[in-house]
Each structure stands twice: as C-alpha cells, then as structure tokens.
Write a structure and sequence with these properties.
By secondary structure, the protein is mainly beta. It is built from one helix and four strands, in the order βββαβ.
C-alpha cells in the first residue's frame, strides 16, 4: 500500500518554496517565497527540510 508524502505548502498558492523567518513581534514565521504570504510557524514546520533565515 502506498502512502502520500505530506510536504508543507503555502495556504494561498500551494507552493513548496517556504522559509522560516524571525519576526520581532510574532517570533518564527513561515514565509512563502512565491506569493509572499506568511503565517506563524508551527512545530511541524521546523521538522521539514525548508530554508531558515532571519529577517529584520
């Protein structure tokens, strides 16, 4: 039986080009590199192989 691989995707455009950025007010945020939408990062986001960077 096969299983689906669940990659984190953007809630708006479903892109997999995501990165973790740090926001002074909200802390770690997940940012879509394609459409620019961002949301507060969940613990599961840190376990995936996505790019992490710091934004000021």
């Amino acid at each position: 039986m096969s299983s689906l691989i669940d990659f984190p995707t953007c809630y708006v455009c479903r892109s997999i080009e995501l990165e973790i950025v740090t926001n002074d007010e909200f802390g770690p945020m997940t940012l879509c590199g394609e459409c620019g939408y961002s949301w507060i990062a969940k613990f599961e986001d840190f376990e995936q192989p996505i790019l992490r960077s710091v934004a000021s």
